[in-house]
Amino acid sequence: MNKDGGSDICRRSFYANLYKCEEHLSKSAHEFREAVETDFYIMYNKNGDKNQMLYREGFDMLQLGINTVLFKAVDVKTALKAIKLAGYDGAELSAIQGMCEHIVLDAWETQAPIVKAAAAEAGVKLLSMEVASLDEERLKKAFEAARYLSIPVVNVGPGGKSDVEEDFQETIKKLTARAQLAKEYGVKLCCKAHVNSSIYSTPTTLRAMELIDLDSFGVDMDPSHIHRAGEKPEDALASVVSRMGHVHIRDCYGPGPSPGEPAKQACGRGEINLYGYFKALVDANYDGPVCLEVIGPEQTLQQAQAIASESYGYMNAILKILGAR
Fold first, then answer.
1. N-to-C CA span, the chain
2. CATH code at position 302
3. pLDDT of residue 312
4. CB 130 within 8 Å of CB 155
5. Burial 28-64 (b: 16+ CB within 10 A, else e)
6. What's the total number of domains in the chain?
7. Domain region containing 254
8. Average pLDDT over residues 298-306
9. 100-101 and 90-96 beta bridge pairing
10. What Å distances lie between residue 205 and 71, 94, 189, 233, 248, CA to CA?
């Protein structure tokens, strides 16, 4: 466990609230996250006064969102309402074939208006979309849907195998072509380093950044994958932040390859120094989307709501301490 002072405060606060979890779960999502935040403030600030958290003048507020994949057990309308109740500014729309499709890209023209209406009713922004696949036809449909929904970022994974040069070069070729296509639709294509893939670490990310010199290409910086590559995400961020267009956030329990069961991916439950990571984000003046992405077995609505609310309270409290919200 990281012994950083701020991170240690975050973890002590979070675990203190776990003892009250059963009580909190009987309350609304709003009351749950308020309980997490309030306990955090009291531990950090002797007076427990939320108003004493200073906002950094001139700094654009980070947008906190959540990938709808956590709510794959329910329809998109229910998912977006739950996300709003948990406190998030927006959502990342899951279009991951075989895992969770809150918009089916093969039918995007009929489904996008439904998604748009659901987001408006819930009062959440659509911050990004995750497709994962690098398939050209699938991404073309994703870019069309993203343009219609005013979604600025589409996220993918790199594919290929780690430390296989032929796979890395093929990934660069595909990402370059797909980023050029994204530009035609006014969308940014972001790719993250992914465990066991051709781009899996900071060094491989830096190679990709050098080889893909397009404004329509960006980095989706996921600290859980960098952690599992044996690095410290809070230290790695500075070298890639200039090209970052998106952040996938979650905690990670253990060295991998799995990040742990869904409940242990909630921010504050794992081993990543998320306080240090958010501090690095704020210090770098990053102002793009930060979206919680929790993967794994299907969760009930109550389970998903608990993970979402806990994580929001944890992240929001850190960002208020850092003056970024």
1. 27
2. 3.20.20.150
3. 98
4. yes
5. ebeebbbbbbbbbbebbeeeeeeeebeeeeeeeebbb
6. 1
7. 5-321
8. 97
9. antiparallel
10. 30, 23, 14, 13, 15
Percent of the chain with pLDDT over 90: 78
The residue among 205, 210, 180 whose CA lies nearest residue 191 is: 205
**Phi, psi dihedral angles at 256 (to 5 degrees):** 100, -175
If one counts every other C-beta atom within 10 angstroms of the C-beta of residue 164, the result is: 13
Residues 229, 202 contacting (CB under 8 angstroms): yes
Tell me the per-residue pLDDT of 160-172, one tens digit each, with 9 for 90 and over.
Answer: 999 999 999 999 9
Contact by Cβ (8 Å): 245, 288: yes
Q: Is pLDDT of 309 > 90?
A: yes
255-287: pLDDT as tens digits: 888 999 999 999 999 999 999 999 999 999 999
Helix and strand totals (H; E) in the chain? 12, 9
Largest pairwise CA distance in the chain: 58
Cα–Cα dist 118/79, whole Å: 9
**Three-point CA angle 158, 159, 161, nearest 5°:** 115
Under DSSP, is residue 48 helix (H, G, I), strand (E, B) or coil?
coil
